[in-house]
Amino acid sequence: MTLSLDFLALPLLTASALLLLSLVAGLFSARLGFSFLLVFLVAGMLLGEDGPGGVVFEDFRLAFWVGNVALAVILLDGGLRTRYATFRTGLRPSLLLATAGVAVSAALTGLGAWLLLDLDWRLALLLGAIVGSTDAAAVFSLLQTSGVRLNERVASTLEIESGLNDPMAVFLTLALIGLAMAPDTGAARLGWAPLLALVQQFGWGLVLGGGLGWALADGLRLLARLTRPGSGVRALLLLSAGMAVFALTTWVGGSGFLAVYIFGLVVGNRARGSVAPALQAMDGYAWMAQAGMFLLLGLLVTPTEALRTLLPALGVAAVLMLVARPLAVWLCLLPFRFPPREVAFIAWVGLRGAVPIVLAVFPLMAGVDGAKTFFNVAFVVVLASLLLQGTTLPWAARRTGVALPDRDDPVAARQVYGDFEVPANTPMAALCRFYGWPPVEDEQLTVGEWFDRACEHAPVEGDQRRWGPAELSVRRVQGGTIERIGIRLEDTGDAGGGGDEGGRDATP
């Protein structure tokens, strides 16, 4: 009797070939402007029961487990790459978007679902909560592969929001599942329990993520001095520690997603020298997590079932993208005085990805009536988001003026910042006299100080202000301090020519 290894070889061959083909297709699709993740989702659908593969897969528990672990890996990688300076720039607006913004989006989307799908108001709000948060995998992936360099305020706001909003989405989903499963209790009978649960989610996530991150950062620095581990070993250390933090926080009732993101943030900044060699390997783990998660979720979807609710589901997606998200972003960013063009871009790039599909598994596992409808609608919303918002990200960035030129492209830099540039310590009064601009009230101000006062927020590269006939732009910022200012003139001939391609130094 011979032992056959077909049970190992055939599934492994199928999975590896599918992953390889998806990666190759993803590389070409990214050049055409399509989301890398969309290819994996479609590949999973083609392998499924409605596709050529014909594989029947309905293990929602396994998909839930894989989805959660994959999201934890992606958030860990994102946290490791986020610098404290970036975090400070976008923390306050991101925190409001990740809490109140998710709630507003969920409520408005729930209203749309109630009208379009004829659901009970509790179930409609539950659907709104499922699709209400942006997705870290989609945001991190699209910002990496789009080829667009965004200004720091916009990029940090989007990244941090996607890293922090999962606790709110999970809390709303679980609370509304409880309300849907026991409708007789009524919303008034819930008391303080939901609020306490939310505080517990955020509290444990912050405490364990920050505390354990601080401890591991010290341990990594000591280990690097004693043993000098290779980059692969360092990546495995970070990955295993991050998964332990995620699991421990989830076990004690906190948000594992928030904890693993904060953990990565603290470790990546406190032990930057030890973490940097491992980032390339961590990038590979994150991509593997994204690929596996989207392939499995695509396999879980039955397109023929999703088609039954296609039109109302597209209506829900339209309400989310065109009404709920823009209104939530506008309300949340109003106190921070973001320029309208940045508000418009952040509102449009509210990418949905794996998180809504994973959250849609919650009501299926809880046995909520009609829960498969939530899953199908969430899938359509994600597909619409990746197709519309994901593919138009570069166009939207250029259209709204939040895209910055490549640092190695002097021609593009000249188009954005103008023909001239000056050091930030140049007296503003001297510039006004030299160019014939209106005089400033305080002649002691440098142009950097004047720009800082004119801004209603911390200045970042790409910020613009007009003074008389000129448009002044922040060309370089270091440590939160403006170093160089670009000048665009309506008639550059009055100031002595157009300068060279990289921007002429026009200090008077």
TrEMBL record:
It is found in: Cell membrane. GO terms for cellular component: plasma membrane. Keywords: Antiport, Cell membrane, Ion transport, Membrane, Transmembrane, Transmembrane helix, Transport. Pfam families: CorC_HlyC, Na_H_Exchanger. InterPro entries: Cation/H_exchanger_TM, FAD-bd_PCMH-like_sf, Na+/solute_symporter_sf, Transptr-assoc_dom. It comes from the Bacteria. The chain crosses the membrane at residues 12-42, 62-82, 94-117, 123-143, 164-182, 202-224, 236-264, 284-302, 309-331, 343-362, 374-397. Residues 413-491 form the Transporter-associated domain. NCBIfam families: PRK05326.1-2 (NF003715), PRK05326.1-3 (NF003716). This is Transporter-associated domain-containing protein.
